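Below is the record:
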Amino acid sequence: MHPVLLEFGFFKIFTYGFLVATGFFVAILLGASRGKQEGMGPQKIVDLCFYSMISALVGARLLYIIVEYEYFMAAPLEIFKIWKGGLVFYGGLILAVAVSIIYMKRHDLPVWKVGDVLAPSIAIGQAIGRWGCFFAGCCYGVKTDAPWAITFSDPNSLAPLGIPLHPTQVYSSLNAFCIFLFLIWLAKRKTFDGQIVWTYGVLYSIGRFILEFFRGDDRGYAVEGVLSTSQFIGIFVFALSVFMLFNMSRKKAGVSTR
């Protein structure tokens, strides 16, 4: 659509970068606010969000580079042009979770309680950031005759031009926003710590698995022509999330009946 938001001579502000940064900013504000409501020091939550944000960007970029290694071997300088798009969410999630756990252990923060606080922030951050993908043209969909198809025309777009495509970026944004609303609703009714963050894992992995069938961009396959990299990782995320929810709820029920 409009990859460049503002341009002043040689200086450009890319829409993708602006919206991804906005998503992170909103996520941090929400996380700090919810952390304060839960009796946690807002500064620790802000610091945690900052480290998570940096590690998420690094992890998301690294997984994209691994998936598209042939392209980056031919053009290594493209590795640093993150404003053009090219982030794989699961890569960011994996590294951000690892860094966050280390931070929480060092600062004596309750892991599952903090996870419940931050899970809605991740979802709303995704909902905003995916619009950056839409304007940049990355993460585009397959060709479709659907009346809501999107046709990209900007020569700077990363999507194929002049072809009606599924607006998968919009689908992803709406999916994340619906997850956000559900998690906020569930947060007021949760029965054990960890319920929100693992529910997020279940919902996101299901939504992402389905959305991958509508994607048309080259994003790599774990099983060629069958499962994309994100679908493959999503299967494990779903299985782990269901297991953790079942195990935690059973332990909670066991404690409450004693």
Remarks:
- The helical segments are 15-37, 42-67, 69-74, 89-106, 111-136, 168-187, 195-211, 229-256.
